[in-house]
Design goal:
Layout: H1 7-24, H2 28-40, H3 47-56, H4 60-70
């Protein structure tokens, strides 16, 4: 995209990411893996619950700025 990511594209991506994350937490193996990795990376237990809020907080401006810097 020369114009960057659209608001609609971002909202679709965020819904998919949040939905997939929530479904993965229902699987005991995935849940234990996430808990272990949070421990390895020094994150607290709250990370399991705040991750979806962090995804929801991503803006079109942030995505397009990151793409501009990295691509």
């Amino acid at each position: 995209h020369q114009q960057g990511v659209s608001a609609e594209e971002l909202e679709t991506a965020k819904r998919n990411a949040i939905g997939n994350y929530n479904v993965s937490l229902a699987n005991p193996e995935d849940l234990s893996s996430r808990i272990l990795m949070n421990e390895v990376w020094g994150r607290d237990q709250e990370e399991l619950y705040s991750f979806t809020n962090k995804i929801a907080a991503v803006t079109v401006e942030l995505v397009n700025q990151a793409a501009k810097e990295l691509l």
